[in-house]
Design a protein that fits this description.
heterodimer; A: about 270 residues; alpha/beta; Rossmann fold; five-stranded parallel β-sheet; three-stranded antiparallel β-sheet; 10 strands; B: about 500 residues; alpha+beta; Beta Polymerase, domain 2; five-stranded mixed β-sheet; four-stranded antiparallel β-sheet; 16 helices; about 40% helix; about 20% strand; globular
């Protein structure tokens, strides 16, 4: 008993101060929101697109009119819903035109918002409407379903309920039954073998309800996209209200998304 | 004894033509003889060759550090099951039946494994299309006997699986586990590789074992290509593998503590696990080691100026972990729940081919790092930790003992990182060659077997996660126990669903 108390005293208070204070520093090689500077792209270069394992990068030519002639410059767009935040494109680029920043804020409300063009203008997730915020703003109970996730997304969703992150502070809790839940967190590409269970879980949650897709697999199928054993993400089975990219997303990325949805963080868009 | 097998070291390639192609009776005898002489089955799988189905076995002799490999070619679609004589093959034979449509005559419990489409087109021994969880379950009939069905979706943040208990009151007569819900078509997708997606498939076989599976893959490719990995890269890989072990063992001990409602250790370990994950992130930017290992070496170097900080953070985390976990052993309400719960006898562990932490908790001193060392483990010895009662307490204490050894290992490696490059070029893969590559992931033995075709691409890539060996152990651990002990037993094994389902 004494030992337990002594250990308690030594371990101290370890919950991060965020969002009231600055978030914890990201590790040295952390790969957050990518920055693309298409003006550096050499003519006809496709190195990044060819290297990308999930075909998240598309390169097209955009006409830039001048008085004398029409010239073309590259338009690079990166689909963050497919991106697995691997180092391939960064390593492949001969001109350092594409690089991952340490910006962990990535969650969006629509699938389309995840396609970042050269302008790298990402419409971060807006808060729920007033009615839903009144309902969920101070108490959001989530049912978490793994539908083919590799247990990495599950681990970093789960970690938010440990003392280091303590989402209970915001009234968010993972619950053991869909009947207790206000919403669903889906991870994994939605395997054929889990599709029915996912659908039934969603149906068992009473209205109004929300769905959050966590990780590249749940958004687009990730590297499993196109496999007949799965369904390219959650949206084909349940209606998704928020997308949190990553492979897996950093816990801070997930927390940022949840807080934005509840209207607790409101610094609009990222330049 | 094992005379028919081709003897190889871990990750040593062999030309396919040199792998003995035995007649079916000789193949059977070779396996049974070896098992009677202290060998165990690391993997047994099917592959297609010249329009026939071939079975390939990889046997392991832990004492001698030898792998024994043989194959046989089936004339038809039938094979006389070895399971009645060699129970550790039961799931492998079910897998071959499901993937290649081979009827395993005499198998006592022939059912689907993953509810997947066969790898061999049109070959199926099961009726109808596979529907996850729809199958006959073993049932106990009788007055006051009842059945409890759990899953696929579980109460926590955890992967899906279906558990069917036959109970008499609180007492569990029998537990049957049906998996396959996580099946993503991984092995099918690896055929024809390596392609640009291949490393990413391997990193997500089981996301909590990214390094373990990637290391097995890297050694396989390096074996097939003859690439020589620089010393610094080997050390960094070892550091990453042990950090993965530290994070997961810490997390598991915290979760075990939570399951017996001892919250101090549960809370502290939940955080400290994150400290170890963040150390992995310092190596490569990802808490799970994504993007770190590649054939030929590692993609990220650790510069010398960051080593001191890393050691300090490692020591802080380990000091906290040791202090928090030590509380378990001095709290009677914890030890009372841990001891004699979910007991597996050592003979049973051997008979059903258990590996890793769960096997070492039964006194089986097997550890790939020690018995089949590759990479940095050839130079740095990690002692094998065992316990002897095969219960939850033993599985917890093996983790506790390994945690300290792994921290020592990481510290020593960080203090003496060789000053070499971290990546070498990888020549093309040798054609018509086989390699079996074993690593000791935090759960236990990971076995990958790569076979190339005449064009030097992968014609078959077999993945055997330690969970594939151990799920049956969990089912047996519950026998005659109380159903309320299930969460605790389950946590003490903490097996992978996706690593099993592939």
């Amino acid at each position: 008993m004494l030992k337990t108390l002594l250990t308690r005293a030594r371990q101290g208070h370890r919950t991060i101060k965020y969002p009231d204070a600055a978030p914890p520093a990201m590790p040295a090689h952390f790969r957050g929101a990518p920055r693309i500077d298409a003006s550096r792209c050499p003519d006809g270069c496709r190195e990044c697109a060819d290297a990308c394992p999930t075909n998240a990068i598309t390169i097209s030519q955009r006409p830039t009119d001048s008085v004398l002639s029409t010239q073309y410059s590259a338009l690079v767009s990166l689909d963050l819903g497919r991106c697995i935040f691997c180092p391939e494109c960064e390593n492949a680029c001969p001109e350092e035109a594409i690089a991952f920043s340490d910006d962990y804020r990535l969650a969006t409300r629509t699938r389309g918002d995840l396609v970042a063009g050269s302008a790298a203008h990402l419409e971060l997730a807006a808060a729920l409407d007033d009615k839903l915020r009144r309902l969920f703003g101070r108490s959001l109970k989530l049912r978490v379903v793994s539908a083919g996730d590799c247990n990495a997304c599950a681990a970093d969703v789960n970690v938010l309920s440990t003392i280091g992150w303590d989402i209970g502070r915001f009234g968010i809790q993972y619950v053991a039954s869909p009947r207790h839940a206000d919403g669903l967190v889906v991870m994994g590409p939605v395997t054929e073998n889990m599709r029915l269970a996912l659908k039934k879980t969603w149906e068992a949650i009473s209205d109004p309800k929300i769905v959050i897709a966590v990780g590249a697999c749940a958004i687009s199928g990730g590297i499993y996209a196109g496999h007949p054993e799965q369904h390219d993400g959650a949206a084909g089975t349940v209606p998704v209200d928020m997308f949190i990219p990553g492979c897996p997303p950093h816990p801070l990325t997930i927390l940022d998304g949840l807080l934005r949805l509840l209207g607790r963080i409101e610094d609009g868009t990222r330049a | 004894m094992a005379g028919e097998l081709l003897l190889l070291r871990n990750a040593q390639p062999a030309r396919l033509a040199d792998v003995p192609l035995l007649s079916i009776p000789l193949f059977r005898t070779a396996i049974l003889d070896a098992v009677w002489n202290e060998w165990r089955v690391s993997t047994l799988f099917g592959r297609e060759a010249d329009g026939h189905v071939e079975l390939v076995v990889v046997m392991a002799n832990d004492g001698a550090g030898q792998l024994g490999i043989a194959r046989t070619r089936l004339a038809g679609d039938e094979f006389l099951s070895l399971t009645p004589e060699c129970p550790q093959l039961h799931l492998f034979e079910r897998e071959i039946a499901e993937q290649y449509g081979i009827r395993m005559t005499g198998h006592p419990w022939m059912k689907r494994v993953r509810f997947q489409q066969p790898l061999r087109l049109g070959a199926s021994v099961f009726e109808g299309a596979p529907v996850a969880g729809v199958t006959d379950f073993f049932r106990v009939e009788g007055e006051e006997v009842h059945e409890v069905a759990v899953g696929p979706v579980h109460a926590g943040v955890i992967e899906p699986g279906h558990f069917r208990f036959q109970c008499h009151g609180e007492r569990v007569f029998h537990l049957e586990i049906a998996l396959g819900y996580q099946h993503r078509g991984l092995e099918r997708a690896l055929i024809g590789g390596p392609q640009k997606k291949t490393p990413y498939y391997l990193e997500t076989v089981a996301g909590d074992t990214t390094i373990g599976h990637m290391l097995a893959y890297c050694h396989a490719v390096e074996g097939l290509s003859g690439a020589r990995v620089p010393a610094r890269a080997q050390a960094l890989r070892g550091i990453a593998l042990e950090l993965e072990r530290l994070a997961n063992h810490t997390g598991d001990l915290g979760a075990l503590s939570g399951d017996v409602a001892f919250l101090p250790t549960a809370s502290y370990c939940g955080r400290i696990r994150g400290d170890y994950l963040n150390l992995s992130a310092e190596l490569c930017g990802s808490r799970f080691g994504r993007g770190l290992l590649r054939p030929g070496g590692v993609l990220f170097n650790l510069t010398d100026d960051r080593i001191a900080t890393l050691i300090e953070r490692l020591d802080n985390a380990t000091r906290d972990a040791v202090e928090s976990i030590a509380l378990l052993w001095s709290t009677p309400t914890v030890t009372e729940r841990f001891e004699n719960t979910g007991v597996i006898e050592p003979e049973l562990a051997e008979e059903i081919g258990m590996v890793g932490v769960a096997a070492r908790a039964c006194g089986r001193a097997i550890d790939v790092r020690h018995d089949f060392p590759t990479g940095v483990y050839r130079f740095a010895n990690v002692p094998v930790m065992t316990a002897h009662y095969g219960d939850v307490n033993s599985r917890a204490s093996v983790r506790w003992l390994e945690l300290e050894r792994s921290a020592d290992f990481v510290r020593e490696q960080l203090q003496a990182l060789p000053a070499t490059p971290v990546r070498a070029t990888v020549p093309p893969l040798a054609a018509d060659t086989l390699v079996a590559s074993l690593t000791e992931g935090w759960r236990g033995e990971i076995c990958h077997v790569a076979i190339t075709g005449s064009d030097g691409t992968l014609s078959r890539y077999k993945i055997t996660d330690p969970s594939f060996h151990n799920w049956f152990g969990l089912a047996l651990a519950l026998r005659d126990g109380e159903i309320s002990d299930f969460p605790l037993c389950n946590k003490s094994f903490n097996l992978s669903y996706c690593g099993h389902d592939l």
